[in-house]
Amino acid sequence: MPNTYSQIYIQIIFAVKNRQALLRAEWDEELYRYITGIIQKKGQKMLAINGTSDHIHFLIGMRPSCCLSDLVREVKKSSNDFVKANRFTKFNFSWQEGFGAFSYGQSQLGAVSRYVLNQKKHHAKRTFRAEYEELLNRFDVEFEDEYLFEWIEE
Hints:
CATH superfamily: Transposase IS200-like
CATH topology: Alpha-Beta Plaits
Distance between the termini: 56 Å
Number of domains: 1
CATH class: Alpha Beta
Strand order of the largest sheet: 2-3-1-4
Order of helices and strands: EHEEHEHHH
Structural class: alpha+beta
Low-confidence stretches: none
Shape: globular
Radius of gyration: 15 Å
């Protein structure tokens, strides 16, 4: 009986609603472990995860049977509930609608993983908006500025 074989690698990016700086270093590792658990429970493979105070990136190995939108919806919903249940912040926490998803080949995994893992250092020099727009342009994704994330002027 034939089988299905694939290599699908996706970097996913999404932000805190209103780009509020609510993700804290004191608990981000716990949040990342929780999100990794969701990814694994859904049969996908977490390769790298990291972020800053207002957004996160993660790189996954994805099975062809996975619906990316459903996976991201589950990650956002469950992690949102996790942050609230653990009272990590006194502010109203939720993720913004929408996300970015960018595909990579096997030979790019090392560089992309390093990029994801160095988010805090990377954003000491560059804004999230500049980073996100560069990714959209590099991947030739057509977009209208008014439909990107809700930006706080940086």
